Amino acid sequence: MEDLNYLLKREQEELLRARIAHNPAARRAHQRLAQGYAARIRRHPHPYRSRRADGSTPFNPFPFNVEGGAA
């Protein structure tokens, strides 16, 4: 089983790297890595971002709808 905290940390690091990337290719690469970590988080046996009945999630990495919208 993968360490959920590690996955969460790496996703956040890649999101930050994408935000400060100096060129579009680097930004896309970091965004793809972040998306990969997000997918692994969703598949983790202890769901962290499971959808609630109202469509929201317990954790939203973009609470103010900045840089990517809803989780």
Write up this protein.
The structure is a single chain. With 71 residues, this protein is mostly helical. It has helices at residues 4-20, 24-43. It has a domain at 4-43. The protein is built from two helices and no strands.
| Low-pLDDT runs | none
Shape verdict = globular
Percentage of β-strand residues: under 5%
Helical stretch count?
A: 2
Order of helices and strands: HH
Q: Main β-sheet: number of strands, strand sense, barrel status?
A: none
| Class from helix and strand fractions | mainly alpha
Radius of gyration: 13 Å
Would you count the extended β strands for me? 0
Average pLDDT confidence is: 83
Fraction in helix:
40-55%
End-to-end Cα distance, whole Å, is 23 Å
Key descriptive features of the protein:
71 residues
Summarize the structure.
Residues 39-71 are annotated as: Disordered. 52% of the residues lie in helices and 0% in strands.
Topology (SSEs and partners):
Elements: H1 4-20, H2 24-43
Helix pairs in contact: 1-2
Region (Disordered): 39-71
Biased composition (Basic residues): 40-50
